[in-house]
Amino acid sequence: MSALPKTAFIDPTGHNRADIEALLHQAIALLIEEMTQADARSPLPEPIATEQFEQWAQIPEQSVDSEVLLGWVRSQLKSSMNAAHPGYMGHMDSIPTTLSVIGDLLVAALNNNMLSVEMSPVFSRLEQLVMQQIAARFGLGASAGGVMVSGGSLANLQALTVARNVAFNAVDTGIVGLKGQPVFFVSEVAHTSMQKAAMMMGLGAKSAIPLRTNKNSQIEIEDFKAKLAQSLRQGQLPFAVVATAGTTVTGSIDPIEQIAAIAHSHQLWLHVDAAYGGALAFSPDHRHLLSGISQANSVTFNPQKWLYVAKTCAVVLFKQFELLDQYFRIRAPYMGEDTQWPNLGELTVQGTRHPDILKLWLSLQHVGTAGYAEIIRHNYEITTQFVEAVKARPILELASEPQMNLVCFRLAPETVSAEECDRLNSQLQSYLLTGHSAQSDSSSADHLERASAPVFLSLPTYRGRRWLKAVLLNPYTQPSTLEKLFKAVDEFVQAQGLD
């Protein structure tokens, strides 16, 4: 195989060990160089010319030298979002735990398939045991368990599919011939994966009935009652309701206990999308915010967010794990069966599955529950400082009272139109990141670059207007980071003549 480079594979006999070690040392050195200098780079990527992308996209006839490839990768890393930066606050992307990075490297080399116990005997067993432990943290009971999936959208899809199958015994024959339209209820600010799930289940996106929210983006119970009654009068077939623990824009938590009471009285499946907020189960100081989640039939939880596990790492938990066998499992006759452990690929949307369990397990073992509780406590302390800074400035307003470490706020001068207000907030986002805005002069920009580190806030549309969102997730974000941020806000306000 003369066309192959010596390091194309790791020779199982060890004949190319020295070459492999040299290549891996180069790659690890690159990783350490980039990650330990993340604070010195902008949270946002460096631009790349279109011509460079076109060069990278070519599939070569002959092997490209590894030195060249690593040089290209270095450019790609510098031109990627820098989530490790303490000023990266725009999204729910986190700096990963060291052991989750190592875990991904190790399982990539093993290349086991989590479809079956036969193909991945250690990790198939470990996944089920860890899922039981996590389910216990949510109080789901002794019969609970779960599976790992590639993201919260798949977790929500699987939970709602099981709910539909249980309600209408739809595993074999689907929902054709029902006397009414199956529907379920979600917050009007719930994740868009709910509408996608409704579409993919053959119900249509509009079968996810939106429920009105209050000023803090929480489901209004009276609207839930009214929409449920209306649905029944119209001959629809309600089968589930979704509560959110950590909305995407404001981090709000629905009143789960009250929703659970209504769900149970009407035999509705209760799913809780705790993709973000589920981490509060690891915080003795804040787990009370998830009150009522123990009554859920299913829960989505993404350790890739507030537990800092490298992407992807998401789970869907079920109060009665055995329901997956009856209402979701499609057996793969080409796979061997274990008398004690099920083939998890038969119980999930995916067949081929990556062994994400190793990086989750390693992170839990290495950080420990005390470590996670400490990080969450720090995040809340930083959030309190952030909220106090917003409230201390009359020109700023909060979208809602934060329940977690998300703060959604904006400039709201009384003397400008709504459209002008949107434009100002867009300019402020740019100013915080670069020190430049459409109406800032060079001297104010230079001063900002000396006075503060760059900060990336996202600019979501919420209730028809543009807001700035900060996700205070990075454990290296310190009070000084926020002091510099609000110093820059004050400079921008003064430069715009808004003070």
Features:
single chain; 499 residues; alpha/beta; 41% helix; 3-stranded antiparallel sheet; 7-stranded mixed sheet; Aspartate Aminotransferase, domain 1; Aspartate Aminotransferase, domain 2; 14 helices
Written description of the protein model:
The chain is α/β, with parallel strands linked by helices. It has three domains: 1-82; 113-354, Type I PLP-dependent aspartate aminotransferase-like (Major domain) (Aspartate Aminotransferase, domain 2, 3-Layer(aba) Sandwich), CATH 3.40.640; 375-495, Aspartate Aminotransferase, domain 1 (Alpha-Beta Complex), CATH 3.90.1150. Helices cover 41% and strands 11% of the residues. The protein has helices spanning 17-36, 50-57, 66-78, 98-110, 121-137, 152-168, 193-200, 221-233, 256-265, 323-327, 357-391, 418-434, 442-451, 479-495; strands at 145-149, 182-187, 208-211, 237-244, 269-273, 298-301, 314-318, 396-398, 406-411, 461-462, 465-466, 468-471. Helix 4 (98-110) runs antiparallel to helix 11 and helix 6 packs across helix 7 (193-200). It is globular and about 70 Å long.
Topology, element by element:
Blueprint: H1 17-36, H2 50-57, H3 66-78, H4 98-110, H5 121-137, E1 145-149, H6 152-168, E2 182-187, H7 193-200, E3 208-211, H8 221-233, E4 237-244, H9 256-265, E5 269-273, E6 298-301, E7 314-318, H10 323-327, H11 357-391, E8 396-398, E9 406-411, H12 418-434, H13 442-451, E10 461-462, E11 465-466, E12 468-471, H14 479-495
Parallel strand pairs: 2-3, 2-4, 4-5, 5-6
Antiparallel strand pairs: 1-7, 6-7, 8-9, 9-12, 10-11
Helix pairs in contact: 1-3, 4-11, 6-7
